[in-house]
Amino acid sequence: MHMDAHPIMTGGRENRILIIEDARTETEVFEGILRAHGYEVRSAKNGRAGIGIIGEWVPSLILLDIVMPGQDGISVCKEIRGMTLGHRPSIIMVSSRQDKKVIVDALSKGADDFIVKPFNEDELIARVKAQQRINGFYKEIEEDKKNLETLLAITLAMSATLNPPEVLRTIVAKVAAATGAARCSIVLVVPGHEGYVLASHEDASVRELRLDLDKYPEIRRAYETKTPVAINDMVNDPLMAPVKGNLRGLEEMSALILPIVFNDEVLGTLFLRARRKEKGFAQKEIDICRIVANSAFHAIRNARLFDRLMQERDTLQEIAIKDQLTSLYNHNFFYTRLEEEFDRAVRYDTLLSVIMMDIDNFKNINDTYGHRTGDVVLRELSEMIKRGVRKTDIVARYGGEEFAVILPHTSLAGAMEEGERLRELVGSHAYAGLVNDSITISVGVAAYPQKGVMNSGDLVNHADDALYKAKWGGKNCVRNTEG
Q1: 196 found inside a domain
Q2: Is pTM, for the whole model, over 0.70?
Q3: Three-state SS for 267?
Q4: In this structure, are strands 16-20 and 61-65 parallel, antiparallel, or unpaired?
């Protein structure tokens, strides 16, 4: 733990004493004694001036005379206790007589102790030190409270989302805020020499940024020893000597690296840097960060699992809706989307068309060249159709050598034009593996609104009837049921 053995000599806020006393002689006596013992002292000749200093200077202890002209010490004490301060300063009341009623009144208004003039120097210092110890207890309780609040905030934030990457980003943000770290990151360590930054509070977009761990001996040490590594002065620490040339800009920087470990399995580290060369990270901060680091274990493992599951889910979704040979949407997805588009067309009174296509004499291609070449033809034709339609159109392999296109906001005339364009596109293409044969398609078109079309099934039936007309009309042509 980075703590000072003699707090009164640190020069920090805990070393500041304010004297509020109207008598100059008394003030000088107090100042002389306190400064001789290493305290930083300021004085005010009345309560109003003293309250102004308290708000600006933030002393840890106040020597307050009870009897002063104007506002007396007891009312000043009460006013101080009503102030909103970042800490609670101790107040020692100074009385010229040992009047129990006055002393009780002062204690009831918020004073912590009293001393009677004339006072003994040793007694004064003993009472000041006693208040310092009490202040230390208050400070420790306050720190414990803040640490618990930090843990609670992190726990609540982690439970607010099931997305592991978001959990990791929350952890680094909360830890950085609680410790004042200039950098807080979670690093996944891959056995060997690689690490990956999974989350960094400096940049929320950072994810899986690769690190060469040969340049981070502090991370490697924490990972290998499974114990926290605390460095007060990164540039001059012996552990960092092999990479000292890479530490420019890290002067007066402290580092804390905590292994993220569970059941003796280490996944990575919680990595913090802060400008604290003199005192480094306190033991309580290390303890809190250690708890947080261990809580990150499952989030990291789940993040890796999460990504894998998401990939598997996407793959399964693709399999469920796509035809494996052509990568077009399959028959079932075609009907699902057609029903959605038909309902939308009815609701908003918009146009909707369907094109049905069938490859002419495709059995001859399979018989002549084999099914492998037939599959190549199907794939090439599918790519041409996808490239030939609009982005808003939905292309599906309806079955075998039959294809379908859903055309939202398209009239029968517009669908006929698109069907003709696709027919020409397919017929003009040279297919791999075919020597003397070409490919043609017959096309049937139907549209909504149209007589006899009451639902999506009717629309498909009309397009099928039109395709039948195209087949019996000589093939390699486009037809609809109205003409």
Answers
A1: yes
A2: no
A3: strand
A4: parallel
**Domain interval for residue 133:** 7-142
Does one domain contain both 201 and 101? no
In angstroms, the CA 265 to CA 321 distance is 40
**Helix/strand/coil (H/E/C) assignment for every residue in 34-98:** HHHCCCEEEEECCHHHHHHHHHHHCCCEEEEECCCCCCCHHHHHHHHHCCCCCCCCEEEEEECCC
**Same domain, residue pair 135 and 176:** no
CB distance 95 to 115 below 8 Å: yes
How far, in Å, CA of 219 to CA of 189, rounded? 9
CB-based contacts of 117-122 (< 8 A; 24+ apart in sequence): 117/26, 119/94, 121/33
Express each pLDDT in 329-380 by its tens digit: 998 899 999 999 999 999 999 999 999 999 999 999 888 889 899 999 999 9
Place of tokens 């202890």: 61
For the domain that residue 84 is a member of, what is the CATH number?
3.40.50.2300
Q: Are 90 and 135 in contact (CB under 8 A)?
A: yes
Of the candidates 259, 257, 233, the one whose C-alpha atom is nearest the C-alpha of residue 247 is 233
User: Does 25 lie in the same domain as 55?
Assistant: yes
On whether both 294 and 412 belong to a single domain, the answer is no
Q: What DSSP character marks residue 429?
A: P
* Active site (catalytic) residues: 401
Q: Are residues 89 and 122 in the same domain?
A: yes
* Prior bond of 164 cis (ω within 30°): no
Any domain includes 37? yes
- The CATH number assigned to the domain holding 404 equals 3.30.70.270
Give me the residue label for tokens 């005379």: 65
Full 3-state SS string of 151-204: HHHHHHHHHCCCCHHHHHHHHHHHHHHHHCCCEEEEEEEECCCEEEEEEECCCC
Looking at the fold, whether 13 and 138 belong to one and the same domain comes out as yes
In a domain, 79, yes or no: yes
Query: What radius of gyration do the chain's Cα atoms show?
Result: 40
**67-105 pLDDT, tens per residue?**
888 899 999 999 999 998 878 899 999 988 777 888 888
Highest-pLDDT range among 88-97, 261-270, 306-315: 88-97
Domain count for the chain, please give it: 3
What pLDDT band is residue 2 in, cutting at 50, 70 and 90? very low
Q: Are residues 96 and 208 in the same domain?
A: no
Instruction: Classify residue 1: in a domain, yes or no.
Output: no
Q: Are residues 292 and 166 in the same domain?
A: yes
Cα 376 from Cα 431, distance rounded (Å): 8
